[in-house]
Amino acid sequence: MKDDVKARVYDILAKAFMQEGVRTCFALLGDANMNWAARLAGEGCHMIYVRHEHCALAAAMAYARKTREVGVATVTCGPGVTQLITALPAAVRAHLPLVVFAGEAPLKSGWYNQEIDQAPLITATGAAYHRLHMPERMPVAIRDAFLQARRERRPVVVGIPFDLQDRPWNGPADLPKPSHQILPRPSPIPPHPDDVAKAAQLVSGAERIVVLAGLGAAEAGAGAACRQFAAKTGALLATTLPARGLFHDDPFCIGISGSYTPEVGIEYLAQADLVIAVGCSLAYHAGGGGQLWPKAKMLQIDVDPVAVSQGQVVAGHHLRADARLGVEALTAALPKGTKPWRTDAMAARIRDSKPDSMKFDVAPGLLDPRDVIEALEKALPGDWEMVNSGGHCSWFFAQMPSRPQENFLTIREFGAIGNGISFAMGVAAARPDRTVVLFDGDGSLMMHVQELETIRRHGLRILIVVINDGAYGSEVHKLRSEGMPEGGSVFGYCDFAGIAKGFGLAGRTFKDLADVSKAVKEFGASGRAAVWDFHVSDKVTSPTIRRAHPAKTKTG
Ligand SMILES: Cc1ncc(C[n+]2csc(CCOP(=O)(O)OP(=O)(O)O)c2C)c(N)n1
Ligand SMILES: [Mg+2]
């Protein structure tokens, strides 16, 4: 029987989320979450209603990365939950704290068409799943879900049968203290002096040092310490892809280390005799699978150093510490006047070299993607937020070295395409005062193109740059290198400007680059979201593909 006066469980659950500090929730509604979501909105939470559950979760991932808070999404039971299965592994691998409010099928029915055993689906992705089946304990369970997400830095999905959500509230009047009030806040870990002495000895014996900073270095605020260390030792600086821009204005930064290393960077990394990885998990791609610095010893400075990462023995020397404190202590322990590798001539080469100088034949009417990125790098304001997606084209748009790390986001840990538009929405929600620029491929954008409607409806200020080669370029280039027919990966240049207009956004096709600066100014003044479609040649092959997939057969 309905009780219209008494609070219901979903009312209390909405309050429990609000007192966890949730101010934005990415949602797609159904029977099993809509009452709760309506109450959450009523409590003042900013709801972003997307068109696919995957996009709700992916947007929450970007939101969590940008705000360093817990990202929140909600889906209905059954088909709402199964849609999460591609985003969750990426969130797990990227160590993103998320809480997902998921409905579950009602307990009272003997049969329900959307019923599925949700827990094993979710736990198979590496996320945690909690069934909340005791209404009186649910606020504590929500608090614990936030605690777990924060402490373990991973997604936690709470599944709540919707008949239980609908019941009158019979639990305690007061909510438990929220997670952020009871979470331990340990201070950054200083290094042990013995480890510092050993690391200093290693550094003193090296002549060509590269400091490789990861996202952990950025999060620990270790950027300045790394620069000081590099200045004292004459070292060069590099970052992983997600930490791009941490040294954006340092003349001795060779750019990204890994699959996206520019030409000059590859040359210098190959000469290194010591790589110092700071706040960096040493993922497979960061060192080009061990190929990029064949002569170098490896010292890892990290709160959780490892010997083996992603199937490879990575670091033989370790300094356990907070990234900033570790680098500062190491710098202080070094004598002045170590042999510097860096020279003014190197800085000039780093500044003046193209990321990739290979020549290709580009057919008239098409663009070289490298020129597109060079033009945008010059034209786009430095304080706009940059979001990078995946695909073959991601090599090209990785090459924008002038942009600071705090304005950059990419999450690539599961290697899935189709996330760019969601990540851009998450960043736009996290930084509503900023303009967001998404760089995406045509295939990736097409995978969740329905979200253009969400962007328009919520008035999100996003410029989508499509590097459109009319194909799944990654597959095309690999198939070509094998001498295989590429037909199944070629789609032709679809009209993204027309598609954008159909969704109520501005759209434009670029056949040349003469107007890019003017277009950027017009876009900035318009206040509208837009899709810019750059038709590029599929003949321009990235260095990564050329290295990993050299042509086996001439295809002509
Ligand atoms: C969800 C998912 N499906 C398929 C793939 C395989 N895949 C990797 S790159 C790619 C092509 C992406 O095309 P596009 O976005 O146009 O970028 P391009 O490679 O053409 O530059 C595909 C299909 C994937 N990584 N993720
Ligand atoms: Mg493409």
Question: In words, what does this structure look like?
Answer:
The protein has 556 residues and is an alpha/beta fold. It is 37% helix and 17% strand. It is built from 24 helices and 20 strands. It has a six-stranded parallel sheet with strand order 2-1-3-4-6-5, with helices on both faces. Helix 17 links the parallel strand 15 and strand 16. Helix 1 packs parallel to helix 7. The radius of gyration is 25 Å and the shape is globular. Magnesium ion (MG) binds next to helix 19.
Please, how many helices? 24
Outline the biggest β-sheet: 6 strands, parallel
Please count the beta strands (DSSP E, at least 2 residues each): 20
Overall shape: it is globular
Unique ligands: thiamine diphosphate, magnesium ion
What oligomeric arrangement do these chains adopt? Answer: single chain
Strand order, biggest sheet?
A: 2-1-3-4-6-5
Question: Which stretches of 5+ consecutive residues score pLDDT under 50?
Answer: none
Give the terminus-to-terminus CA distance: 75 Å
Summarize the amount of helix as a percent range. Answer: 25-40%
Average pLDDT: 96
> Rounded to an integer, what's the Rg over CA atoms?
25 Å
Structural class: alpha/beta
Beta-strand proportion: 15-25%
